[in-house]
Amino acid sequence: MIKKVLVANRGEIAVRIMRSCREMGIRTVAVFSDADRTSLHVRYADEAYHIGPSPSSDSYLSIEKIIRVAKQSGADSIHPGYGFLSENPEFVKRCGRAGIIFIGPTAHAMSIMGDKITARDTMINAGIPVVPGTKEAIHNEKTALKFIQETGFPVIIKAAAGGGGKGMRIVTERSNVTAKLRAARSEALNAFGDDSVYIEKYLEFPHHIEFQILADKYGNVLHLYERECSVQRRHQKIIEETPSPFITPELRERMGQIAVNAARSVRYEGAGTIEFLVDKDRNYYFLEMNTRLQVEHPITERVVGIDLVKEQIKIASGEKLTIKQKNIRQTGHAVECRIYAEDPERNFLPSPGLIKHITNPTGLGIRCDGYVYEGYEIPIHYDPMISKLIVWAENRNEAIKRMKRALYEYKITGIKTSITFLSRVMDIPEFIEGNYNTHILDNNRDLLKSRDQRCDILCEDIAIIAAYIDYTDKLNKLKPFRQDRSNGNSHWKGYGRKRNSVRI
Amino acid sequence: MALEIQLEERKSKVELVRKDKNFVEILVDGRLYKLDIIMVEEGVYSIIHDNKSYNVELIEGENSKKYIVNTLFKSFNIEIVDAETRYQLSRNRNLLGDDESTISSPMPGKIVRIPVKVGDKVEAGDTVIIVSAMKMESEYKTGKAGIIKEIHVREGDTIDGHQPLISIE
After folding, report:
1. From the candidate CATH numbers 1.10.260.40, 2.40.50.320, 3.40.50.2000, 3.40.50.20, the one assigned to the domain spanning A4-103
2. What's the pLDDT tens digit per position in B24-71?
3. Across chain A, what does the average pLDDT equal?
4. Where are the alpha helices (DSSP H) in B28-164?
5. Residue among A356, A455, A472 minimizing CB distance to B74
6. How big is the A-B interface in CB pairs under 8 Å?
7. Which end of chain A is more exposed for a tag (fewer CB within 10 A), N or C?
């Protein structure tokens, strides 16, 4: 059994992993960069090692340094968390060579799933549906039309060398095919110096639904049901829930089985996630596999009652899975909101800075996985996510109400956060009805901005009064002490003076 | 004490009538408010007005007269406009003139790239500096055409929010 884990990560996920280690009686080793000396994971761990300057390329991404610390500290294993080195097969190999257990899949499984084209081919061979598309580049309209006849409209033309939305065209009717194909090819040529394009079926109103997988070293593979992750901004998830309000029990069964097959096809080990796109007619397609713990794993933990980090550690130690698929059930409903240090009113511009004050929500059904505290300065070098707020309730309706309550309680001052924005999402009718897809935030742009009407002149005046009082109090404090006492209006100061003398 | 306070575009006159500990009578543009206001935590005020409970948080801006004030639904920029501020404003206006502007970033970060150099002619909408913070890069563009007069930072520098980066004439 693993005895000492080096957590090659920072922030909330490092703390979350160490929590499970502590419950299991496993010692923990933190690594930190210059910027993270005061970070919570350093304070929480049993041991902490400095690994270099703030930029992650010189610290958290340095395989060399992390392996060295693992050896120096006598850690028998490394947990990579998510991001950083978690999906780097080279790192897995280096751990193996150094005789350190990597808590995650094999380098082989990781490499296959890490490459989009290989992963797609492997899935097709395993009989798993992928988004229909042409396998090779299209050079003339004839081949394009042939493909479109087979799949039907709409389709999307993508640049083979592509990325960043360049050379992309959505085609919805026959009369447009020629013109759009020409436009896409010329744009691709300009952007990438290569005019080859390929065509994929365009999924309208897609849902992003993923399945959690657990697999041991002995071929036992389980799924822990799905997570609905369709609320996204800039292709990044911000709210997740489970169970998905969109899929039916039959579909859940079927997709779960497919996810298990996908994991089997690469002889997967550990915790992983199979991501699917599901269209409005509930056709599902393999999108990709994440070969690590996901940010949103807590909602699954809450609903199925399994600690995923503990399972990861047990699997890596060589233990067999003791849970049986038939005993895994979803109980109640869980929702997660990701809290970012960013300004939703300025196009989600990052907002690093000093946390002046923080009130975490508490009470029935709340879990708050974070790493910041009062007086902590959020560094500019890393991801702006500061915490994850997870709520659980008997049913979906109650879970949403609880999330709204928790967001109302959650106060962070000193920096801008997405808290208010998230609570507005909770008010979107489509969200409340559970009838939404990945377009939800775009479709409700006005609703998400409509706060202006909600702060009337009274509310403005209140804000002005608060500023007036704060400013004048500040001025009074700057005045000489004697004057302060003579007007005698501050009982708090008197109290403070008394308290100070008592303390001494 | 009477103060002029600016909330976004709105200017208001605020005058304290009475103050007894946390009980305050105050005039805002002639409207009288009687309320109970108390700082409950650093930067957080609890206000009770007509038995309604409000929570307002104040984040101090670049100086002690500037605040970002968060109410439940909205966040405002608020500035105390006193004699000193007025003087400085008029002085800055004279100093800068109408034909000079300064590019700054509202957030701290790191300079990734400066695609211009001193003396370059730029058009409105041209990118003059790229700042990265928390894995995201933001491009800053000029609002009007002009000539790069001064570049106050270098590529790779770490910067504070609201720090002048580039002056354009």
Report:
1. 3.40.50.20
2. 999 999 999 999 999 988 888 999 999 888 889 888 877 888 998 888
3. 90
4. 83-96
5. A455
6. 147
7. C
Question: Which positions in chain B touch A420 (Cβ < 8 Å)?
Answer: 70, 72-73, 75
pLDDT at A222: 97
What pLDDT sits at residue A485?
44
**In this complex, do A382 and B108 lie within 8 Å of one another by their Cβ atoms?**
no
A474 and B CB contact within 8 Å: yes
For residue A349, the chain B residues in CB contact (below 8 A) are 106-107, 136, 138
pTM: 0.80
Question: Looking at the domain covering A204-331, what would its CATH class be?
Answer: alpha beta
Q: Which residues pair with B60 in a beta bridge?
A: B67
Contacts of A489 in chain B (CB under 8 A): 19-21
pLDDT at residue A288 above 70? Answer: yes
Domain A141-201 has CATH 3.30.1490.20: yes
Helix axis angle for A107-114 and A89-97, nearest 10°, is 170
Which residues in chain B have their CB less than 8 angstroms from residue A411's CB? Answer: 44, 55, 57
Q: What is the ipTM of this complex?
A: 0.71
Q: Identify the three-state secondary structure at position A366.
A: strand
Tell me the pairing of strands A366-370 and A221-233.
unpaired
Architecture of domain B99-168: Beta Barrel (2.40)
Residue B113 token pair: 């790239």
- The fold of A335-454 is D-amino Acid Aminotransferase; Chain A, domain 1 (3.30.470)
Of the listed A292, A302, A405, A424, which one is catalytic? Answer: A292
| Alpha helices, H only, A284-365 | 297-304, 308-316
A 330-349 residues with CB below 8 A of B?
341-342, 345-346, 349
- HSE-CB of B79 using CA atoms within 13 angstroms: 15
Share of chain A above pLDDT 70, in %: 92
Q: Fold for domain B2-84?
A: Glycoprotein, Type 4 Pilin (3.30.700)
Sign of CA pseudo-dihedral A233, A120, A435, A401: negative
Reply yes or no on whether A292 is catalytic. yes
